[in-house]
Amino acid sequence: MKKNFNPRILGAAAASCVLGLAMTPHTFAVVSDEDFSALKSLVQQMNQEVSELKKTHDQDQQQIQKLKQQVGDTQTVANSAAQKADSLASASQVRNALHNFTMVGDAEIQYAKNFGGNTHGGFMLADFAPIFLYQANEKILFEAGFDMMLQNGTDAGSGHHSGSSTSIGISFAQLDYLMNDYMTFVGGYMLLPLGTYSERSAGFLNKIPDSPYGRDFLPGAGAGVQLRGAIPIGNSGQHITYAFYGANGPSSADGLNVAKSLDLGGNVGLNSDGSSGNLHSTPSGGGRLGWFFPWGAHKDLEIGVSGQTGVWDDAGSHYWTAGVLDAALHLGSNFEVKGEYINSWYGTTDLGTVHPWAVWAQAGYKLAGLNLDLPVINDIELVARYDKMNAGWDSAGIGANARTQRYTLGYVYYLTNTLLFEGDYEWLHSNDPAQPANMLVFQISYGF
Questions:
Q1: Distance of alpha carbon 316 from its chain centroid, rounded?
Q2: Alpha helices in 101-192 (DSSP H)
Q3: What pLDDT band is residue 191 in, cutting at 50, 70 and 90?
Q4: What is the pLDDT of residues 436-448, one digit of tens each?
Q5: What is the pLDDT of residues 382-411, one digit of tens each?
Q6: What's the CATH architecture for 181-447?
Q7: What are phi and psi of 164, to 5 degrees?
Q8: In this structure, how many other beta carbons lie within 10 angstroms of the beta carbon of residue 211?
Q9: Buried/exposed 377-413: b ≥16 CB within 10 Å, e otherwise
Q10: Would you kindly state where each structural domain of the chain is located, as residue ranges?
Q11: Bridge-partner residues for 378, per DSSP?
Q12: How far, CA to CA in Å, does 366 sit from each of 19, 296, 339, 374?
């Protein structure tokens, strides 16, 4: 069937097509410019950001390298500091060890002249006595004293020199443990508190060149243990001092129990043949109690009583016993007087009970107390001593009591506080032929 064709519709369609073709190119051109401009701007912005990011990245890399270098330098410094710290710690330990270690003591050289017999004056002895102290900590102290002596010998019968002898011995070696403020434990080869001379006046501390009579009747040291300390009385400065100990004590020098066999040096565990064992059956016991009373600057009084007892012979049948009464008085910094009464006795098979005893008193006055403007005078201290002893038997061991008394006058010239020039003259009266007559003694002492 043939359809009718409408020319109006065809014309309208053609017109629409022409209009569409005319408009399309204009529309495409406007969108592309805007988009292109926007895209171009975006690309430029992105390029700029990328450039900035790259720059920041480069800066970060440089900063990282710097940080790595700084870390390396810091590590080097740290290692160096650690090495220095280790070195300083080692050096500090050495310094601390040296700081905690101290050597004190004294040295003497002595000249003597005996008036009597065929003897001549000469240098009698040279002595060096160091004391080593080591403080391990606040509670533990080690101390040891040695005595190195060169001494001339004499033949008592002829009065001639019989050469010289050199001796090196240990005076004491002990551990001190501070248990509390009022008690200290002592163990080892210790000084024995029989009187106060051994601990406070021997050697450089003695203002007269030789020891007082009676000290040879007592052991100066012994192997054992001890508890000692002081207890204050109120707030006046007074206190009670105490010491209690157990020690090997005196023994027999040869296993015998005759008078001349007594060995006050004791025995520390070996017999003369090298076998183990002591030449006495049981240790000795002893101690000291003292009272110290100060009432002013450099003004004080101290009184003490001490003693020791124990078996001394190998058979365990004889005892050795000693008691000591000591006193010391200071009246200011220039005057002092002190002394001891020593009483001992021991049983023997040949002489029965032997009873050695002695008494001594010593005084000193520093001329500085006169307040004179004279340098040499102010450096002098005058000293005097009286001592007397009864040995209980004479040097020949025949049972006769050997009695000796001595008067001593002397001086101490203080070259420095620790360097002393001492001298004294001694008047002796004795029934023992082994004792010398009057004697003149000079000594140079140095304490350190």
A1: 39
A2: none
A3: very high
A4: 779 999 999 999 9
A5: 999 999 999 886 555 444 567 899 999 999
A6: Beta Barrel (2.40)
A7: -140, 165
A8: 17
A9: eebbbebbbbbbbbbbbbeeeeeeebbbbbebebbbe
A10: 181-447
A11: none
A12: 144, 19, 18, 13
